[in-house]
Amino acid sequence: MLLDGGSGSNFHESNDWWIYSGELRRPRATSLRGACSCGWRGETSYPLSWEDVDRNAPHLYDTRQLKDDWARHIDDVEARAVPVPDVLVALLDQVEQELDRLAGDAPLAALRAISRLEHVIAEAGYAAAYGARGRREVWNSDRPRPRAARERRPPAPTQRLSAPLNSPGVMGR
Length: 173
Fold this sequence. Notes:
Helix content is about 40%, strand content about 5%. It has about 170 residues and is mostly helical. It has a three-stranded antiparallel β-sheet with strand order 2-1-3. Residues about 1-10 and about 140-173 have low confidence and may be disordered.
């Protein structure tokens, strides 16, 4: 699907595939494929049957094939990723469990802890990216990145479009 954004360089983009229904002069998606914020796009496009899409709950449309494609992509990314030390994995698991517990018992305290954690993550992420860049370390050595992408901090791989966490994004086509 080609979307004409006019003559400007900025174009509003949505990750909700169901808005591309052809209504209100919008483009009409004819197929879906998985997508990830890291730039990955699923190789397989799956036909989209608008007759099977519930207009009141389009998010319930069966996207299992897309989720499977995305899960394979994430498995591949994780298999090629630099391993995280076991002690840190255990600590992160413990933090997650405590935040879940705190969210149920004292939601405002959980939000305060999450705010602090976000600050820690931002600072540590900046330091790690700076260190990796200084050492010229590359986390995806099987494809070169354009110069502009090498000069800014890259996002962590996540799913695209409004799919639930730990599930793939979908991309209208």
